[in-house]
């Protein structure tokens, strides 16, 4: 097994000469170029099974580039420069060299120097000595000691331990040239900082003495996670579990004589600003940088009383685990890098004092004159770059004041009916037949009248009438040389006008207005317009999508009018909405609606962004008030996306084109959402103006140049900040690309397939991530993030169906996820191919959702039933049946129930069909299998397992016909199997057909893994109706009498007959609870556990054989997905076809029924476990396979245990067999695989490739690079 892709928490970061950023992710060392575009990248696995916790560059090169080039056979014309690094983590240490080509700085790679040095204690810090022996490294260990290690010789030269023999949580070595000048600062488990030195020649220490504590710093109330020292200032900083950062004045540390600083070091600052534990701290002149579990990196100014200058947030949940700050400041800029628990690496551009001062500057009061209380502020200005120094304010006295060049001027004074109440809106419009632009201002009052006038020429205004009631809101919609004004009046009428601005013969401005038919809003309490957008679909038809105060989205259609003389005063009846999504944004209303590339985006005060479209509805879905001439149009919500936690009022969504993205290396479309704070926001600018307590305030003085600040960019995108609890594979997509062939002498281009694996993960952070994994390069891209769950996502599955139009070659799947709070969500997932970026693109469409508490609230007689537990969670799900119109799903529940649901995509509906409480305790897992009888009749079995260790078997054949006939009674289990002493976490089922010699029927094998760490394989004989009695399998004896009480033998010849034949167990398959078990091929199982082992098991007639294991880099492994590497055609399409293909798919009336695939062995199961795959290429980094000892097997059958015997292929089946070319059945039905894939998920994810035959050359290379040396203390000769 070898690792192809890894996403794990970033545990180490280090800048090198401000040219490279080095990261540690698990055992993988990576380097990013900070100046290459596109960004240069290289990586190498260096610490085997240890996590990298520190990277220390050597201060100078001790070997010349020429000697290194000659040693490695490099040509003198392309001599590379190289840099050495000490990489440490756990109890391991290794030296790695980074080669950089001088002629091409984008060409760089790592090289391992020497073996892996394994120490006898945990390494907390390591520093190079700059003295006469350049190969010596000073190492701090967890038992409060310091070692001097000769990395070239591979042994410890000397060591020193502190007299206070306590454990350290963190350590900092202050080194100079020699060992005697080294000082160690340690953070103890007793919440203290201690300072001691390694040598003291005055007192005549020898190697047997322990060093006393020279300084002790007290004050923290929690353990200390990180220590930093700034030599220029003599400052020491510490980060602690008590959520604080402390700054100490310790003076000079280290140097000649081993200085330990001031005798009485003082605590200069106590910095509280984090909401959780603080993991890392760094120092720079005038600044303190800290990062913690709250996911924030806080920049402090120690000169200004320790106030917060900036807070950098960009990682997902889980916190920031690593922090690095560049030493040099170039162009008043400093790089700050953060690495999160989500596996993301983020680079921040923190500038000097000017930028930080702008964030914390005081507000500017514009000294509004005593002309009344300001009520509304709006921006004015012409052109694409509106003036930051001009805006208008409307007061409660009905006056409009203009602020320009630092002065206020009253430009318009309304009549008495404009006082005490008014609404105002502005817009910039082009003058007809001219290149000039003007600002229009519209003001409405309480009596239904409004006035529209140019700001530069208020006397050219026009008075309009909007009914008898007050004007609730005003909205402008721009379109080239004209604008549309919408005014919400009384009784739900939205009055509309088309406005144009012209120049008269005397060069004065003339405002022309003609009335359009009004809109009529639906009946509701708060009946006025809050947002609108106009879309012209044809030369004669215009669509309006509006949002109202009740939170509804409305669709209107009108005939386009171009001539002014067609205007009539209220002769046309009000336009009724063609479609209405009532209250989709909640009762607080819609705040904005915009259109982009045929899709609509709406925001509301519910904190959500909704993506929807307009499409043709079916005849039965059309509204009764729609005209027969009009085609049936309706609004259809495709996606609901919550912005982020804490943003409950979204004011606007802005679509940023790729040309204005801040990150020049990541040209993607992004949506920015601003939170409402009663402010005016200028497009392209970062300044704000708002009204507070009767004053007009700005975030900075008007007129100053304001630009977008340089923000952050992702060197690597994070996935999940917390544990991944479930995973499923959707499929593979890609295309053929041409690459240069450098191997052949003739050169030329070579066609290769660029294939990406599409994976969906869900976890503790309540989100679903659609990922694209590129195995050859190890790249992982987040295609979409779904945040509809209100609690953790426990299980997810993808039902893959062929697209209705096969010409588009879309990868389409129905995605179903379930988790906490008894919530189910369903989506249509469309994955296409972007021909420009050569990467997949994704479209997520929301199908429906279901919650048990909401269903209980809708019951008529709910007072007679017991209310469901709000903490009920779904733990596992399995696909029972697929058809053209619905999918049946079985879910295991924590309240002891097994529930059957139906997902109907055409109706966007999820229904609960029945539930049964047979287990009476938490049901942990479910699985299904299909049986094919003699007469091609198919049967379906459902397996469910609970915390009591028992497995129940249910016969679900004909469940669809029962549901269609109205029968909702759940069946009774037909067999109960005792399998474990505690909970069963995972089930795997496969089927083997029996011939006539075996009495017909089939054998169903059930493999299960539990909390007891046991692997159990149960074999069930299934006899179909009319085939005679059950019994007599090939070599299987019946189970003993002590287990006959739990067997269920059906005597009715019209039903299936099930009989438990045998059980085999591996009591200690893992050293911890077995959390995931999957079927790679019939008879070949893959298991994982929180002990971080991935094990392969062969199941055959003679027993269960352990075929190999790998130590995974993913902690707390909880989920796994496996698939075979068979050949299949890659699916490709363009990203622009997604929306059109989606319309064709949902408008199709019929869809072919998809059946589960069958393999040669006669078995069938879910597509997640049996999907065929295409062979991938060699990975960039491989991990050596390790094999565990033989596991003892227990067999409950009557026949005696047999020794491992070689099968027909000559392979020995025992625990020491390292080959993966396995045979599952002795009669020719084999479980041999050429290539398999295993995806392990937990605190991160790791993609493994299982190959049938490992290359000898690859093994030798890995063994040489991964060899390790035990480091011991070398005694000096006396």
Give the topology, please.
Elements: E1 2-7, E2 10-16, E3 20-25, E4 28-33, E5 41-45, E6 54-57, H1 65-72, E7 80-89, E8 92-101, E9 108-118, E10 123-128, E11 136-141, E12 145-150, E13 155-161, E14 168-174, E15 183-188, E16 193-197, E17 215-217, E18 224-230, E19 235-240, E20 244-249, E21 253-254, E22 259-260, E23 266-272, E24 278-284, E25 287-292, E26 296-301, E27 307-313, E28 320-325, E29 333-340, E30 345-351, H2 353-360, E31 364-365, E32 374-379, E33 390-395, E34 399-404, E35 407-413, E36 423-430, E37 437-444, E38 449-454, E39 462-465, E40 473-479, E41 482-488, E42 493-503, E43 509-520, E44 529-536, E45 541-548, E46 553-559, E47 579-581, E48 590-596, E49 599-604, E50 608-616, E51 633-642, E52 650-656, E53 670-675, E54 679-681, E55 688-692, E56 695-698, E57 712-716, E58 724-740, E59 749-763, E60 768-774, E61 779-786, E62 793-800, E63 811-819, E64 823-834, E65 839-851, H3 852-857, E66 874-882, E67 887-893, E68 898-904, E69 909-916, E70 923-932, E71 938-946, E72 950-955, H4 959-964, E73 975-978, E74 984-993, E75 1002-1010, E76 1015-1023, ...
Parallel strand pairs: 9-86
Antiparallel strand pairs: 1-85, 2-3, 3-4, 4-5, 6-7, 7-8, 8-9, 10-11, 11-12, 12-13, 14-15, 15-16, 16-17, 18-19, 19-20, 20-23, 21-22, 24-25, 25-26, 26-27, 28-29, 29-30, 30-57, 31-56, 32-33, 33-34, 34-35, 36-37, 37-38, 38-39, 40-41, 41-42, 42-43, 44-45, 45-46, 46-47, 48-49, 49-50, 50-51, 52-53, ...
